[in-house]
Amino acid sequence: MSEPELIRLRPRRIRVICWASAAVLLVVFSVVATSLHGPTGDGYGTFQRGDQLAMVGLGIFGALGILLFTRPRVEADARGVRVRNLVGSYELPWEVVRGIRFDRGAPWASLELHDDDLMPMVALQAADKELAVEGVRALRRLHQAHLDRLTESAPNR
Q1: Rounded CA gap, 101 and 7, in Å?
Q2: How far is CA 91 from CA 9, 88, 107, in A?
Q3: Among 4, 43, 53, 58, whose Cα sits 20 to 30 Å from the Cα of 29?
Q4: Global pTM?
Q5: Which of 119, 132, 72, 70 is closest to 93 using CA atoms?
Q6: Contact assessment for residue 114 and residue 96, using Cβ atoms and an 8 Å cutoff
Q7: Do 56 and 29 contact (CB within 8 A), yes or no?
Q8: Which UniProt keywords apply (predicted)?
Q9: Tens digits of residue pLDDT in 74-84
């Protein structure tokens, strides 16, 4: 029996939305930056080149903030599963995983651990519909293969 290969899962819809939003935000801040010139109004201040660069910088930071939402990823193989969410990453062996859940109405799938904890997997989002369902099925197959290996290697008593 051959070892299952590495499974890599990433959200699709949120990545498209975030990349488009980041590009739009950067363009908007760049356009605003080019329109900043001359006096600030009734006061004595005037817009300088530094103000324009600051606006572009704010656009870049805003775009990078939006792109953080493209960070989630799940990788799994015969040894275990690695989950990277918006904040934090976890590497779990299959021994600590009881099951993979994707409850009706839940925004994303989660790992159910033997200590009754739920580990969210933001990369498997309900918004991706069939892609997320196929990802959960692939993870369940890997988990089941691990359980099968455990029962095969267990000594008969």
Answers
A1: 17
A2: 15, 10, 22
A3: 43
A4: 0.79
A5: 119
A6: yes
A7: yes
A8: Membrane, Transmembrane, Transmembrane helix
A9: 999 999 999 99
